[in-house]
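dumping this here before i forget
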Amino acid sequence: MQADYPINPRSYASLGCEPPTLSWQNFYSAAGVKGDTGFDEGIIDYMWTKYKIYMPFRQRAPARTQALFYLTYVYIHFYPTRGQWARVMTTPYTGVLSYSSLHQALVPVMEALNAALNATGGEISWDRRLAFNNHDFLFPFYTTTIVDGFPVEVWEPEHAETKRLLNQGKYNATVLKGEVVISLTGEIVSFSFPHIGIRNDSRMWQEQTVQKHPMLKDEWCLGDGAYVACEGVVTKYTANCVDGPLHEGI
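structure:
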């Protein structure tokens, strides 16, 4: 049975108390939360409010937990090298976080956040595509989502067969591929990664996405030309691109 919170004897949840909450102005630089983390302050505040009790308990400096939580997003946003570290990993509250703190202090917070996301089901929900406000004046009915694939360039493998599976001529690079489905309001409702580089978008959709994310009988997703003739996807129509007439329901 899934636990209500990650099993961590030194988390605030396991000890039955909550960490203090300081104003985010104590942490962000002159660039602001958006500049530091890539997210609006409301999103960071939402994530902290929801997951703060799962963070590692700190008796001597409880507010430091919130600072490390904030710096986790700064680290993910910039992924700084050691040379960039001092310019990026700093807040008015903590000063510059030492590089050694990456493993001693920051990684435990990352692990706690990951465990909390797994325990609570995370923030990506396929059901949210059916939210009452998920409409657009161009697609007021039936169409709920938009799908597309994306590449992530990786180092070229030395192993010949692995290189073949990752070598994508379209990008002239070795890549891993992923797929993201968003609602009409821009919210991610499905995400899958990684897929091999030679996997085309239509196969990612047919072989994984629609298998794990069933759609309603009269529901449609918007896609580009890579999704022509895919189940549940509406794409542009190009003459002779498929064998047969347009679907009668479109």
